[in-house]
């Protein structure tokens, strides 16, 4: 695993099927969503209208190779979105149908693949800035919440809620936490809200009962800080799933594509 | 008033200081926000993170002339954001301080001007599609509401609510209304939500008590349809006003800049 290219080759051979957290630290990782062409334009609109929750990096054009937009962030070398992620979630009718290490059977010329920014890189930056997230210290997955804040609707995508990740910090740390993550414009950027009043604005009732991930302990002098979360687009797919004909494919949570770039600005 | 250029000349000479609704129909109109350079980067981030509510068309670079980004939507001929709008709102400390027909005294080299998409053009398209908004039929200003949906925070811009405009339609018309306005990607685009459940999601309690504009009569078979509204950025300025040193200038509501372009796609 000396390079992203050789790591993707391991995934392509199905020699590696695990999560990518901690793999080749510093390299950008990307989320995946493959949808039937009939809903691709609606999904792209959803991303463009909601760039903080659904930061679109690039999309395929007719073949399995990523060719359009933002090419500078993407590999020069060959990669294949059907095989280069370690694990895939296959959806049918908005329901998780299967987990597989490739989606060769589900992909067709009538699908479009989207790569979406992933927050792994900004968490690394927080650690380097001495603002180690509590979930890292406590060895837990980050807490994620489905909120009452809805994406701005786009085509079939209606009533799709924001999912947020939460990391507790002291109020005095919030300015620095915001500055550090602000730079990651293609991977959710700075927090969308914070504080207990922020939790209320987002309709989060119990910070110890996350909808995804693990509960994270907070001390009395900490407040919650909320970032838009990459689970949002996959939840949008399941929300409108019955309206979608054919397979939808996402990366299995935590099992991302490792790109050749070390920055995302 | 044979052309946008000659209309802007009238404004520059202060021979025209009225609202621009119905002026040179079909030409794109733009909203204005001029902020001190110290908060310009935060304001630009706010727009980029919330493109539906704050659709940024272009910004100035050091002088009064619009030069950067999206130049194809903008005039080839000379225009001056300090004088070419018919009327300006001058803010100080987040409070409306004065209305003037130019902002020559308030503008300085230490200001940055932003042009923002305006929904006049999509209302025209609705009329042409036979979906005449009730406010037009009733000869009233559109109803606008401050919502409990907040922009994704950016720099000093925190806890800034979406403002929405509301136009009532029959449920059977909603699909067509969405399609017609979807194309106006730089001027708020399709509705962000609709229906009485949509009003609830947006925290709107009484549809007959708009925060701006006029109440619009609805029939029993109509539901409210909500678009993001260009008042949002000006409300953001007043929300964080005490944090901003120096003059902020907006167009006076309804008094827009008329551009040379007839489309905004």
TrEMBL record, chains A, B:
The keyword RNA-binding does not apply. InterPro entries: D-Glu_cyclase, Putative_hydro-lyase, UPF0317. This is LAMI_0D00210g1_1. PANTHER family: D-GLUTAMATE CYCLASE, MITOCHONDRIAL. Belongs to the D-glutamate cyclase family. Transmembrane segments: none annotated. Keywords: Lyase. It comes from Lachancea mirantina. The keyword Lyase applies. One of its GO terms (biological process) is glutamate metabolic process. GO terms for molecular function: D-glutamate cyclase activity.
